[in-house]
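Working notes for the structural subgroup meeting. M.R. asked for a predicted model of this chain before we commit to crystallization trials. I am recording the input and output together here so anyone reviewing the notebook later can reproduce the run.

Input as submitted:
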Amino acid sequence: MNNSAEPVKEKIILGLDPGTTITGYGIIRVTGKQISLVQYGVIQLGKAGEHALKLKKIFERVISLIEEYHPDEVALEAPFFGKNVQSMLKLGRAQGVAMAAALSREISIVEYAPKKVKQAVTGNGNASKEQVAKMLMQLFGIKEAPKLLDATDALAVALCHHFQKGQAKTKSKSWASFLQDNPGRVKAV
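Returned structure, recorded in token form:
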């Protein structure tokens, strides 16, 4: 059977970094093994008024991104645990409406912890927002860092999701098959 005749699969991933003042978004296209930047930016919520109106705006903007770019999957950054309970509740609501927007369009969603996202993109789970942005600029050939790093944070979430999905497909069933499939990954002591 000739596999070269099969069409190359394309997937669009929408990454979201929900926030109550700024929500970042990043969209990547994966075609075979090629990853390309489609779009990234922020949803500014500072002047949206009371909290409920901010949530409505997040929902509407995420829906508009879905309708414009037709993502196959949505990845979100999970809220980190802070000391301020009120901030955590508001952040959780922002994430919830972003999730609801994706689910209303029957798009699968996955959450990633901030450390997991940073680890996947930079190799360091404690990397700064600036380090994440710099790595993404190199990977995607972005010439100028955005003013608001929530945009690159969201782009990092989308990329992390792609990397995690790729790993899930290539996991070996046993240690012996892992060694056979990855001879250069283990060094003899």
